[in-house]
Amino acid sequence: MRFSPQTTLTAFTTAFAVSLLLLQGCNDVDSNSNSESESPESWQKHLKPADAKTLADFTLHARAYVPVYSHIYTENRDRVLNLAETLSVRNTDDANAIVISSVRYQSNTGKLIREYVPKPVLLEPMATADFVVRLDDTSGGSGASFVVEWQGSKTVNPPLIEAIMISTGSGRNLSFVCRAVDLPPLKTVLKKSDESSVPTTKK
Predict the structure, then answer these.
(1) Pairing between strand 181-183 and 174-179?
(2) CA–CA separation, 10 vs 132, rounded Å?
(3) Which residues of 59-80 are buried (b: 16+ CB within 10 A; e: fewer)?
(4) pTM for this structure?
(5) Could you give the 3-state DSSP secondary structure of residue 103?
(6) Which of 150, 145, 202, 200 lies closest to 178, judged by CA?
(7) Positive or negative, the Cα torsion across 71, 117, 158, 65?
(8) pLDDT tens digits for 90-127?
(9) Residue 178, pLDDT score
């Protein structure tokens, strides 16, 4: 079979275009995969790193647990619907900032999947910080959760923390909200070097 120069050029152009599309698709996947590991202030410019003085002044430490779902069961355990998750941390105080010191995303087995806040960030009065889990990220499972740690002054209003789950398309639109519940403050653990200073009672 003999090919004309025009046929050969057309085939080459088509193959080159397909290759570019495949490469672009791979780059998009990589970009999406890396987006969760980015610091929140990298795409939310109103978030600023908290300095050491602010951390020292904000003596109120608190934690919150937020239930989320990377998928839910629709008819039985073999039929699931994936959901995109958005965690929203809202500073409800109109005069005082707070610090978001940690946002941990955990699976339904309690395993840590991702830390969204590698360094504490300052959330100004009435401002909001968002943390997103993509629709195709099912690593959390049906019992995923966020644990949010925050700091503030003794008189600050506690933030409003909630998560929005959503799935759209194919004639089905679903969304619902889960609100955070407070957790007890972290307990102080004695270091081994300090154990010797703890008095013991002899029997």
Answers:
(1) unpaired
(2) 43
(3) eeebbbebebbbbeeeeeeeeb
(4) 0.74
(5) strand
(6) 145
(7) positive
(8) 999 999 999 999 999 999 999 999 999 999 999 999 99
(9) 97
Place of tokens 């195709």: 136
Task: Tell me which residue of 140, 162, 159 sits closest to 150, measured CA to CA.
Answer: 159
Contact criterion met (CB below 8 Å) for 168 and 118: no
Minimal CA–CA distance to 140: which of 165, 170, 171? Answer: 165
pLDDT, block means (10 residues), the chain with 203 residues: 51 44 42 55 89 96 97 89 96 98 97 96 97 94 97 96 92 90 76 49 47
The whole-number pLDDT of residue 172 equals: 76
CA distance 72 to 83: 8
d(CA 115, CA 103): 6
| Residue 85: both structure tokens together | 């998750």
| Domains, the chain, with CATH or none | 40-183 (2.60.40)
User: 164 by DSSP, 3-state: which?
Assistant: strand
Strands ordered across the beta sheet of 128-133: 128-133, 84-90, 160-167, 174-179
Written as six digits, the tokens of 13 are: 């152009």
Joined tokens for residue 149? 């740690």
Determine the pLDDT at residue 155.
93
